Amino acid sequence: MTKDGTIETRYIWENLGKHKDLHNKPKLFVFQACKGDNVSISFDKNTHNGNYSISFVSMSDYPLPPDILLCYCSAEGMKAYRHIYNGTWFIQEICRNFLMYGRRDDVVSLFARVAKCVSTYTYEYTKQMPVLISTLSRKFYLSKSKDRRNKIAIYDQYHKIYTALKEIEANIANYEKNHHQK
């Protein structure tokens, strides 16, 4: 749902299966738009009376081509939120998580992290829950595996060096403490 009307997202991705150049290649779509006017209530577990309903939307009418990941900012029929100055919760978290973990984690793991982060935001007792739909047949990374392995190895070395420096620092402090007491 947009300010100007409704767009069926299936029109964007349903013809991808016909393009031979895209076979066996991951395809990622991120949709930032309200999917309705309903709101999700953020319940306090101590005051919630248990009266709520769950709706299910079937995708069987719209078969997805292989190797596709659809990322919606909210569930079917639900509103999406944005901060007046900082932008949408969903896009904020995509940027933050992809910058922090994008060279290390696969895309599905990144979007799971994004969904977890977005679900913690609240506005006047309402919240938002992103939805991921995947037909990916393997992990999908944004960086080359060689680069990712090298960066993880560098981080591990950095962590070992940092730990060793902290131990040396503690030993120096102990030495100086004992040296000054004599």
Walk me through the structure:
- This protein has 182 residues and is α+β, with helices and mostly antiparallel strands.
- The chain has 2 domains: 10-134, Rossmann fold; 144-182.
- It is built from 4 helices and 7 strands; from the N terminus they run H-E-E-E-E-E-H-H-E-E-H.
- The chain has helices spanning 10-13, 89-101, 107-118, 145-181; strands spanning 27-31, 40-41, 68-72, 82-83, 87-88, 126-127, 131-134.
- Strands 1-3-7 form a 3-stranded mixed sheet, with helices on one face. A two-stranded antiparallel ribbon has the order 2-6.
- Strand 4 and strand 5 (87-88) form a beta hairpin.
- Helix 2 (89-101) packs across helix 3.
- The radius of gyration is 23 Å and the shape is elongated.
- The N and C termini lie far apart (77 Å).
- Residues 20-38 form the Caspase family p20 domain.
- It comes from Popillia japonica.
- GO terms for molecular function: cysteine-type endopeptidase activity.
- Belongs to the peptidase C14A family.
- Pfam families: Peptidase_C14.
Structurally, the number of domains stands at 2
For the sheet with most strands, the description reads:
3 strands, mixed
The CATH class designation of the largest domain is Alpha Beta
- The helical percent reads 25-40%
How far is the N terminus from the C terminus? 77 Å
- Report the oligomer: single chain
